[in-house]
Amino acid sequence: MPRPISQRINWLPIWLLGPVAILLAVILIWPIVQGVALSFFNTRILNYSAGKFIGLANFNALFQDEYFWNSLRVTAVYGAASVICTYALGLGFALLLNRDFKGRGFIRTIFILPWAIPEVVAVLIFAWMLDPQFGVGNYLLVMIGVIEQPQAWLSQSHLALPALVVLTAWQQFPLAMLIILAGLQTIPEEQYEAAKMDGAGAWTRFVHVTLPGLRSVNVILILLLILNSFRRVTMIYAMTRGGPARSTETLSVLTYNTAFEYQRVGYAAAVGTVLLLILLAFSLVYFWSIMRSNQAK
């Protein structure tokens, strides 16, 4: 007896999406599987095909490696500081651009420019600005009294990471600004008018109307910024290469340095596998937040 039409399988979407799914599996999933598999071998670049299977030895050595724990700490500090600074700048400028004033479109375009600049170019700009002899950044900080004399920001371990956080926040805040601005424009104006009629001031309206209206946007944006900070390599490597004294060596940079500077491919794969698990955990929270926000609409 033939099944009802409603229970028949529509094979057309499967046939259309099948080739794309296979292509994604080859391009994305297979390299990940191969990278995880490498973490169980003692593999180096010079004898890549002659790696010896050593089981969990790379992971045992990894969790006893002080450089790994230092990179984990640097990643956490860098991620937290850059996310906070990026979000604060994005929120401030989004609140500014959400107002109606003359020239708003031009100013919005200017604010987007840092995001459009390639990371390597942004690094070169900041490296020149922070130059201890000729940098305009040192000159301005001395002029306004923040520092007494020019500093070698990228050559001192206690200054390199803050400089990197400032660069990251400057380059990434337009993304946060655009996302928050889109969220602000979804908040009904009637809520602000009702709050004004109740005598609420600007701060009270911000706390009780704006922030609750941005709750779902904030969760997704913050998780996205965290993911970006964990996997960022180009900016950090081009600016400091993880130095000085490993003060800016995040897990991503440690993976790169271990594989290509020290040629320990298997050990680098173990570091990358740990980083993959951390990113996977944040990604699951990210997708869960998206699904929950979609269900709430």
Helical run tally? 13
**Lateral strand order in the biggest sheet:** 1-2
Assembly of the depicted chains: single chain
Please identify the structural class as seen in this structure.
Answer: mainly alpha
Helix content: over 70%
What's the helix-strand series? HEEHHHHHHHHHHHH
Poorly predicted sequence stretches spanning 5 or more consecutive residues = none
- Annotation, overall tally of beta strands: 2
Spatial shape = globular
Overall pLDDT score: 85
Write a concise keyword list for the protein shown above.
mainly alpha; globular; 72% helix; 2 strands; two-stranded antiparallel ribbon; 297 residues
Briefly, what is this?
The chain has 297 residues and is mainly α. The protein contains 13 helices and 2 strands, in the order H-E-E-H-H-H-H-H-H-H-H-H-H-H-H. The protein has helices at 11-38, 57-62, 66-97, 104-116, 119-129, 136-143, 157-184, 189-197, 202-213, 215-231, 234-239, 251-261, 265-296, and strands at 41-42, 52-53.
How would you describe what is shown here?
With 297 residues, the chain is mostly helical. The chain has 13 helices and two strands. It has a two-stranded antiparallel ribbon with strand order 1-2. The longest helix has 32 residues, at 66-97. The radius of gyration is 24 Å and the shape is globular.
